[in-house]
Protein: NADP-dependent oxidoreductase YfmJ
Organism: Paenibacillus albilobatus
Amino acid sequence: MSQLMNKSIVFVSRPVGLPSMDNFEFREAPVQAPAEGQVVVRSIYLSVDPYMRGRMSDAKSYVEPYRLNEVISGGIVGEIVESKSDQFKPGDKVIGMLGWQLYNVVDAKLVRKVDESIAPLSAYLSVLGLTGLTAYFGLLDIGQPKAGETVVVSGAAGAVGMLVGQIAKIKGARAVGIAGTDEKCAYLVNELGFDAAVNYKTADLDKALAEACPDGVDVYFDNVGGPVSDAVMNLLNDYARIPVCGAISSYNATDADVGPRVQAKIIKTRSLMKGFVLGDYASRQQEGLVELGKWLSEGKLKYEETIIEGFDHVIDAFLKLFEGANLGKMLVKVG
Amino acid sequence: MSQLMNKSIVFVSRPVGLPSMDNFEFREAPVQAPAEGQVVVRSIYLSVDPYMRGRMSDAKSYVEPYRLNEVISGGIVGEIVESKSDQFKPGDKVIGMLGWQLYNVVDAKLVRKVDESIAPLSAYLSVLGLTGLTAYFGLLDIGQPKAGETVVVSGAAGAVGMLVGQIAKIKGARAVGIAGTDEKCAYLVNELGFDAAVNYKTADLDKALAEACPDGVDVYFDNVGGPVSDAVMNLLNDYARIPVCGAISSYNATDADVGPRVQAKIIKTRSLMKGFVLGDYASRQQEGLVELGKWLSEGKLKYEETIIEGFDHVIDAFLKLFEGANLGKMLVKVG
């Protein structure tokens, strides 16, 4: 094994605005031999996610900033190629928060097995992983949609958004998606069963949303922030719930993120707005995975992936998230 | 009784921006004789409150807009001067949501007795009334301050704000007030026991708040919205709670109320922001009144009133709320 050459993506400077290739460096080095209790994991799928932009800043946040001159980390599914742990044998497929590199040599306790007979490997980075759980807990614990209510989700054609709308439907609510192309909107309605979808780039947003939500908005699952959220906030019903999951529209902003203040709207409607991260639900992950797995096996939940091929394109794939280039979960398949 | 002349304040046009005398008309007419089951209440104290500005607009809100050409209504403490109900006799002191007039002729069930031996009459419009309950439920149900946490309240020298800070202290938290004059700030610290107070009109707000809150902000009881709230939002700790009670800074705004968007801050800190009105706690009012009465009798809760004399000055008193002219509850004593 010691002849294996590794390739790693090292974080070398903090981006201002949209990250660029200059913020990263590809480095090569031999893969080190595992110590007792360690395993060598060959990367198969890498997850790229909007929250990673936050970790590239050194501002205080809910996750530690990435450190300069260290390998970027994220969710990875891979295969054990060498094991010095009795928990794993070569060929086992595992998932973990690992480094963006071809091989990770880590303590066995940092990865857990995934079962290809239940779902394809990539699903463990989307519907049966952090993505699915984020949609599940954000919508059901904070949003609490009731049958007949209207649930609006922004970033609806993204990995989390498309699950949010489908779970809303499972709960008997009306699902309205906001996305950035007509193709995405058509997909949401025709393939995933959303009741309506609005293209925020081409529509008169206030008008189109009002038409899509004739009974107002009871739950707004916010993935994007910015002007899209400003528009939804005008349609809130009394006691609306707003799980705030992401604000991708502002992540690369270098100017102040300024818009209509929400306070008066929140008072008038007695609405609740709550930020969350998946870690808040660590103790309930198993519950979420069981439910998601059940819905998946019953055919009630579809998921979509945009897969970019080749380790050399990890940064491209990450940057494409901010162009909205992905339908569903953005993944990189290591060549 | 039929010779009594009444004077009423009728709402004749909806204000744009700050209301003016032109939006109201004083009318005189004889007091009508009460029907069976009715009482005649002579007004003693009238409450003027910021939320009334909202009712003067016809926008959808949590309370019905005032109707044009009808008498404005609000909280009033008065004395029964004639009764056709066996529930009340002349001389009884009562409270109710009544019209801004010298006399109200209403069904007996619309008023309830208050006891002058427990607290002065005016207290039933402040600490032992809607004001006290608003502070109590907003802070304790949504804010949920824990011992050692930092509670910031804006509009701190207002009727609700000064109770919020004192209840925070009762619960063992650190109380920081934001108010608009040095006199108010000194009063909060020296008389009410706030740990710190910041004059938002003269201080470098970001700097002064950071100094007043060295451990960040766990609860922000928001009475004002606007730039003051923008500044507090920068200091939120993880899992902060923000009861949104009022946005007085925007009530008379004719321009859009624009400022830094809150979404990214809410996510980073996983904070909760929730609008509320007292009606949400209707079933728990008795609990609140008992607690407030206990703290009052134990000397743990002080309250303050700014009393304007004379029925003819009701509109003046209402408008002075928006200048921050009041310390504590703004009341009008009918001459």
Notes: Chain B has nine helices and 17 strands.
